[in-house]
Amino acid sequence: MTEEHAANLYDAVNSWGPDDEFFLRFATENPEARVLDLGCGTGRITTRIAAKVNSVTGRSQEHLRSMLTEAGFRVEEV
């Protein structure tokens, strides 16, 4: 399985749910907040948070780099 296939499969299997709504509300209570999303996967929640707060950083495992790229994030070595 390629990383791109894994990223697509991840998004297909993990649909938006009540827990995502909870974390989105929690992370965006303060528009001036700086949010760190650890284990962000393909950035499904991260991108929605980024639309509502001043600063958000998504961090995931090195082998999930293609998921971040798929989500449209600029991937950098940290």
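(the above was protein one; protein two follows)
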Amino acid sequence: MFAIIVFLSGKISNLLSSFANLPYLEDIVLSAALFELLFLTFNILLLYIEIILDGKRLSIFKAFDLEILLTDYIIAVTLSISLCLISFSSGKLGTVLIFVILVILSYTFYLFKRLEFKNAIIKKLLIISEDLIKYGDLKTKCDYFLINLKEIIPYDIAAIYFFDYKNDDFAIPISFYLPIELPLNELDLNIKNGNTIKRILDKKIYISKNTKRDKNISIVGELQNWCESAVFVPIVVEDEVKGLIFLAGRISMSNLLLQDIEDPLNILSKQMALAISNYRYFLDIKKEAEIDPLTGLYNRKVLDKEIDNLIKQNVNFSIVIFDLDDFKKVNDTYGHLAGDQVLKEFANVIKKVIRKTDIACRFGGEEILIILKGLSKEQAYIIAERIREKFEESNIIINGNSINVTVSGGIASYPEDANNIKELLNKADAALYIEGKSKGKNKIAIC
């Protein structure tokens, strides 16, 4: 394409200058100026045609395009006069030689810019690798991962999911970057149905440069207004898809996707897979001493330690205290074994809904507390309400009878509502009983 542009620019500039009938020197200068102008014009038109064919609206060029245009233009300015001079003095052979030199130099500069771009990406990958090693908590690793990734890929929306395809129905992101006007549930990932999960389970990076026309994925709701292009990077652990890095954006990201970014994304996927493997190994070690034997959730010791660590690190988080409604009536009517079964069922619902990095603990008796790292009260409410709805829909069979049990919850956040463990628990507990239990039960209340 470069050769065609040079040929057309040269031919047209010679044709136009021939009509001017200028003296020798002025004719050379005019030919050179026309060549440069036509050369730059053809390059700009070519880039716009590429954008239109790719289904994107017209926009300003990305920095990489401008650098390539500037490089080509400098070459054209430097050599176009030489091309004209040699054409007049040496004929066609000299013209061909300069033409070949022009092509080689331009391609050399192009390769240099590509290498410069890849070198910048490698430096960012090293920073991401350092942070994955440096930070122990998986949620923190994911947060820094997305922060550093934005310097490589200028996304508008990003999310990291971990899920169990065999057991989960949907996934909520562990870490995410979302415009303030979009609610968290816009990032729900349907694990069981839809085209998107099929693409993810292929274990290959999928890049959609036009999400609205792409039939292989499904982005719905308000989210689609922010996603002109999207990248789906499966996280594969032991040959099974265990998570996803999702990136989406508008023009700035769409332009970047015109370049070769699959290799860096593959590296990032493998790094995150290693982080998950290490985290799972760490959890396996902790489980024996810290798990409540009835519910399979963490015990009170873990709860106190986790909240204390988060407060010391000044990490924003929310807690939800759940209490089963009329649980005493279940025990009195069906017996304590039936009550244990109801608790197990509720714990199973919680484990399916919460994120893999959230902490669910048996708080005492029929109370269960969840620590939702990095979520505001409004975002925590979305998850808590989903748990309440799922449990209400559960079909619990006791001695051949189907019974319906509901749950109420209270939410409080650090540091918005409290700056210590005791005060935070009291605020959530007050919301549970004053706004939840006393006002009809089967509801979630925010402090």
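Reviewer note on protein two: The chain has 13 helices and 14 strands.
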